[in-house]
Each structure stands twice: as structure tokens, then as C-alpha cells.
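== Polypeptide entry ==
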Amino acid sequence: MIRRIDAADPDTGLIGMIAEWSRESIDDVSQSPKRLVIAIAAATAALEVFIHLIAPAINVPLNPVSILTVINATLFGGAPGQYMLISSVEHWVLALVIFPVLYVVTARRICPGPAAFRGIVFGTILGLTALFVIVPSRDFGIGSGTLLIGSMYAHVGYGVILAVILGQPLDEAIADTEGQAPA
């Protein structure tokens, strides 16, 4: 169903629509908190295994905490080493909180198709954002093609695992069982 958006109206305006959409998404996921925890843990564990074991084995320079330490030092001044702890916390908060919330509120609701496809789209957006927005904006440069490949593998793998375990949104699941398309 297509709704007319009146930006001036707080009930039907863009902000009101986003707030309603976010509430619906969170309510949907809260139906199965155990699945959410398992999805986040599995996706994050796979990401960490890739970063620390697989990427070095295939000679891919992938160290998000080091990049975050340099970004923090650039933003706030000082030596990158003094930001190691906060950069580690930032990395974990992104993987355990921010990315799952972004997936649930956006890609899980917007992207058509099966969960794996939604995860691929979400992971691709994360990987490209990391490479083409965050890294170059802090004068790191894009580096080699291996950094691009490693970042894409890591983020797409994270997105697919998160999406497949979470499954499809509740309204689509109900529509599928009733044999009709979701509204």
C-alpha cells in the first residue's frame, strides 16, 4: 500500500513513518529474542574468525581496530596507540549492536527476496561504506584490491549469517502461510 507522505504532519511525516517502521521491526524481532542473540553471536563470531584467522592466511590486510585507532587519533589528536581500547569497544559495539539494529530496521524490511539475498545486500552496503566512505575520508586510501575483497567477504558473510538466522519478517511469514502476498 502506498501512503502519501506529508512532511509537515508528525503522524504521517517522514519522521513519524520511520519511527513507526522502527517500532514494527523491533516488535517483530522481539518475538524471538533467543534467535536474535544467536544470529548476532554467530555473525560476529564468523566475522572475527575471518578477520583473525582466514584473512591473514590469504594475505589480506584486514584489521578494523587498527583503522579505528588511526581514525580516533586523527579526530581527537594524540597517538593511535592510546585509542586501542576505545577502538576495540567501537568495533564490538558496531558488530553486536549497531549493525544488527540497522539490518532489522532497514534491510530486513526493505529488501525483497529471501533472507540470504537480504544479507548479501546488507553486507555489501556495509563493506562498500567501510571502504569508500570511512577509510578514504580519513586519508587511508583504498589500498590494494585485497583490502576490497577482504572487506567484502567479511561484511557479506556477516550480513548473510545474520539474515539467514533471523529469517524473514513476521508479516511476510504470516502472508506466506496464508498464501497471499504481504501488504
